[in-house]
Every structure is written in C-alpha cells, then in structure tokens.
Amino acid sequence: MLIKAVLFDLDNTLLDFSEMKHMAVNMAIRAMIDQGLDMDPDEAFRSIFETYYEVGIESDNAFSEFLKRRFGQVDERILAAGVNAYMRTKPSFLEPYPNVVPTLIKLIKSGLVIGILTDAPRLKGWQRLCAIRLQHFFDYVITRDDSGAPKTGGLPFEYALGQLKLSPEEVLFVGDSVERDIKGAKASGMVTALAGYGTKDAEEVILAAQPDYILSDFRELLDIIDM
C-alpha cells in the first residue's frame, strides 16, 4: 500500500472536543447559577446540549437560546456570566491527544502530505488548531466553509481529492465518526482508519462500517504506513 497523504478529521481525532465542550458548559452553568439561574445543574446541562443539537454544536447563540426557551427572555447578567466562564474554560481543555505531535512530526519528516478535513466552520477550526499549536503542521486545512457541504454528503472527500491531486487509494483518512468520516471516505475510495480512542460509536456500528483500521492510539498510524 503506497500512501502519499494522510487526511485527518479535527475534533475527537486530533483533540478531545467532547471533553472540552462538556467541561466548558459545566463551568458556564456554575457561573450562571451564581448569578441567579434557578435550575438544577444536571437539568441545565441536558437542556443546553439539547439546544446545541438543535441550533448547531458550533453555535454562538446556544446559551441565549437556552435561556430564552427556558424563561421566555434573556437575563444578560446571567448570560454574560455563562459565556465568560465558557470562554475561560475552553483553552484549559484544548490539547492534542497523546502522541499526536510526535507522530505528526514523523509523518512530515517522511515526506507525506498531511491535511485536515473537518465539518467545523473555517474560523472555529483555525481557532482550535491555533489553541493546540498545530496551525503550521498541515499542508491543507479544509473546513466546511471551504468544501461547501457536510461530510455526511460525501462531497468534501471528493473536494479534498481534487485539492490533493491524488488517487483515492493513495490517501489515508483518519476520523472518529462512522457516519461523518468513515462512510464518506470509504465511498470515495480512500483508505480509512477509525480513531477508536475518540469515537462515540457503538461496536456494532463500527463493525458494520468496516474501517480498514481501528486506532487505539494515535501513534499506531506509523505502523499502518510502515514507518
């Protein structure tokens, strides 16, 4: 197998986005309760994530929408406390997974092309890359704004191949989601590796998708491409 390029999903593949989101929301809830939010923390957590799933996990308006839906109006003091706590907490939990940095360095030194294909909006994707200090590592960073479509539709994978100017079998795609990453990459003809350390998918879903490889640690990429 001659792999010439490796493409990565960003969230829950290079960094633990879910942990960051959960911790930041929890701290926001504590701050809002301190400012008068009369609500059980667990109930607030569930309600905020229900709102995120409806308005978009990247939405900047999730907290205000949560307050509006819950109370019919937005108390700006409570909202400000929550947003400030959320923004303070995020950087503390934005770190690459173990072995990401040394593995990427080895891939770069080997002459492989490496890139990112993410459903994140362009600005937020770059914000997270800068936060984990990987903004200079990649030859290509393709966001949802660049490809113009979500990965579930498959078009971003074709777009990425056009940018790389490589055949699908020369590209290894690494991602945590069967639905967003593995299915589309396989349909395009790419070699696939599931980030098992970051996936939330059930075992039966993973087995049904049949990724070419399942990673329990990021550095196992080096074994796949015989480095």
CATH superfamily of the largest domain: HAD superfamily/HAD-like
The spatial strand order of the largest sheet comes to 3-2-1-4-5-6
The overall average pLDDT, rounded, is: 95
Distance between the termini: 12 Å
User: Which shape, going by the Cα principal axes?
Assistant: elongated
Q: For this structure, what is the CATH class of the largest domain? A: Alpha Beta
H and E string: EHHHHHEHEHHEHEHEH
**Sheet with the most strands?**
6 strands, parallel
Helix content: 40-55%
**Count of all domains:** 2
Tell me the quaternary state.
single chain
Question: Beta-sheet strand percentage?
Answer: 5-15%
By DSSP, the count of extended strands is: 6
CATH architecture of the largest domain: 3-Layer(aba) Sandwich
- As for the CATH topology of the largest domain, it is Rossmann fold
Structure annotation, total helices: 11
Briefly note the structural class of the backbone: alpha/beta
Rg, please? 19 Å
- Low-confidence runs: none
